[in-house]
Amino acid sequence: MTPRSTSATARGAAGRGVVLLVVLAVVACRPPAHLILTVEDPQQLCGDWATLAVGTDPTTLVEVTPTRHDLPVTVTVTLPSADERTLWGEVRDAQGLPLGRGTTAARFERRGTPTATIALGRPCAADQGCDDQSFCTGVELCVDTICTAGTGPCAASFDCVSVSCVELGAGAGSCAVVADHALCPTGAYCNPVQGCLPGRGCHDAGDCDDGYRCNGDEQCINLVCVGGTPLATDDGIPCTLDGCSEDLGVFHAPQPAFDGVPCGASASARRICLAAGGGCVTSRCGDGFVDAGATPPEACDDGPANADPWALDRRCNASCAGWAPYCGDNQLDVGYESCDDGDSRDTGNGCSATCQDGHVCGDGVQQILFEDCDDGDADECNGCRTDCARGCICAAPNPCAGANWCDAGRCVPCAATAHCGPSCVACAGETPVCGGASVGCECEASPAPHGSCSKGAVCSGGACCACDTLTSCGQDCLSCGGTTPLCGGAESGCVTADCAGLADFTLCAPSGAPSRAYNICIAGSCESPGCGTSACNPPYPSFARADLEPAWQYPDTNERVCYSDSAPIACPASGATFYGQDAQYGWDTHSPPNPRFARVEDVVGEPAVQDSVTGMVWQGCLGGLAGSGCTSGGAYLQSWSVAVGYCDSLVWGGYADWRLPDFHELFSLADLGRYIPALDAAAFAGMPTDVQIWSATTSATDPLNAWAFWVLDGYSFEYLKSNAHSVLCARGAPPVGAAAARFTRSGATPVVTDAKTGLMWQGCVDGKTGSTCTGTAASPTWQAALTYCEGLSWATYTDWRLPNLTELWSIVDTRLASPAIDPTAFPQTPTAGHWTASSHYADSGQSAWTVDFANGGSDRPGKGNPAHVRCVRLKP
């Protein structure tokens, strides 16, 4: 028989149980199972200990007396059979009180040398007995009568964040978090809660300074740079052109265009704008400006020469009260004379000896009050008609005669080396560029791709030739697919006559009227946008090209300030109230304030605005205005049909392919970070602040209405086409994409992927579910809508957010109404307002923009009102 181990001696009543187990093993003549146990004291709890107790039950431990009294110590423990058990160990003082206690899982074997280790911990009866009063070690707990170590409270969630625990001193009992923006990719910053996010990181305002003072002082808010508020430039005086330059700062320059505008009153005299006089000055006789509102009113003002009324035309005296009219001084005195040709004789030249009119058209003398011109002949088309009015139509059967050419409906003489009409054979050695059958050739240093051939013709060898059945058309169009090419003018090249199976926006030539330079395939049919019905409305933004990423960017709103539901606020962190609004997502969060538009002036006085985001080019002045600062002329107010025709016939900045922009194109200019006007005022200089600008898009609810953009705050609205509104033309042929469906709807929890914009949409509005979107649509407040999208888990995605205004506008289909959206891709869409993440700048964010899918228009209700919600995300 195997004797009992002498390395563990049983003591007391509990000891008899171990002896019995060993005896049973002996009687059965089978060897016991054993384990070599090591007991450690890593926390130095048991400095003066007397006994060690071990066992498989914490309530019936067996005391053993090891051969040594320093820890660690090793003993052999036996069981009658091989088994896997839980071992407990406890070290006690001389009075039998526990100093340390521990447990471990162990495997007893009859053969070999299995081992186990117990690390002693503090004995306990409750959690409070385990607290070591240290914050950085975490919260200790009493588990199975043994104190367990706590978990440190400070841990970094992302690679760009370092966290340390503060035990003593300033900030004691807290975690010190340091975000290292340098560990994020270029164009991103370190957010301690979300990791690397798009934006420019900072630790103080100095990190955000862009070196430009006019756009205001940049701020560092929540570790990300936020654009400053542009410097206020309005001095409240109508005499000045207010602005800001980086060299001068804020400036107020007197403008001659404002001369005579009342600008205030003093106690004794009226004040008017007078650029030469220094701005807003007291009106006086002799300042060179006739002020009819002065006291007494001025009838004339010759400036400094006013003191000698005989020195000029003898009509103005030193009191600016006027002088008797003088017939024959070549000055027309309205009210006294109907003409004044510089003599006081009645020679039959249109003006009598009493300076009363007796004009004869064709006598070679222009009578200003009655004739636009008088060239002394009856030629109908050399600049002056037989009724002495300008503007002949230069076309057969009245082409320009002699060495003249037709310029904008008028016959003007050929310049020596610039123009050559039908009678001019050579172009002085320069390469001719075709100008159309009725125009002749215009000579330039090098030819344009198609020259300026009229529609239906191509430029070949310096001459305009009609289209034929060749497979090429113009110099930059190599093939028309083997079919008969149709020439579309200088900007079009080869176009198609059959839109069947072709993508929307493919260039085409319609078979019927109207036909313009900008004709596109829409739903398989060739249409001219602006034709007068909603059927020819372009179905989505022409500049939407997700296939061009990353070069392509969808136009953002330029909203860079966060708001509560009543005022501007610092942008909140993720999870906080009002998180997820416009200023916290998109291109604006990581782009400078004004990188989008560039103002160019290839032709003096006819500026254009280039949009680097959409690729479009805009007329730099509102229709009717001209000049580098758009200070000349007067803004046109036109009906919709006249506005369409105006852009079709416009020649501006050296181009003739202007057109009236459609709904999506026009509203891409909306700048929600500004007010009066709600667009880039520097790019669109001289823009009146309270005008409505026509789009080419007809209302789908009423063909008598068309959409217009309100410059004041960016509002969209339908107006009667007979109303008189402003016009701003655009150019740039739309891109031609692959013939593929725009929307793809998929999944039982449906999502809609937009192939044109790269956005993915929630397939049902909030409150509706399933493949067909059944249920009742929810109508939360604006704040609740933000929270809903930020917390949404839909179709396995969790990065949903509330769309901004231009994003939600992108899915409006202006061909449709009630709802104005693709009903297959977005079934059961409520015909009411849907919240956007964009606040309304004008009322300090007390309202937010919505899009009404009854017709696609926008509104700005108070944020406490109800509206529907559809969330968005970027496609993977």
Notes on the structure:
By secondary structure, this protein is mainly beta. The chain has five helices and 51 strands. The strands form 20 sheets. It has a four-stranded antiparallel β-sheet. Strands 34-35-36-42 form a four-stranded antiparallel β-sheet, with no helix packed on it. The radius of gyration is 43 Å and the shape is elongated. The model is unreliable at 1-28, 392-403, 406-411 and 414-493 (pLDDT under 50).
Short description:
The chain has 876 residues and is mainly beta.
Low-confidence stretches: 1-28, 392-403, 406-411, 414-493
**Count of individual helical segments:** 5
User: Which strand order do you get reading across the main beta sheet?
Assistant: 3-2-5-6
Helix content: under 10%
Largest sheet: 4 strands, antiparallel
Q: Given the helix and strand composition, which structural class is it?
A: mainly beta
Number of strands: 51
Rg computed from alpha carbons, rounded to a whole number of angstroms: 43 Å
Task: List the quaternary state of the chains.
Answer: single chain
Straight-line distance between termini: 75 Å
% residues in beta strands? 25-35%
Shape: elongated
Query: Overall mean pLDDT score?
Result: 77
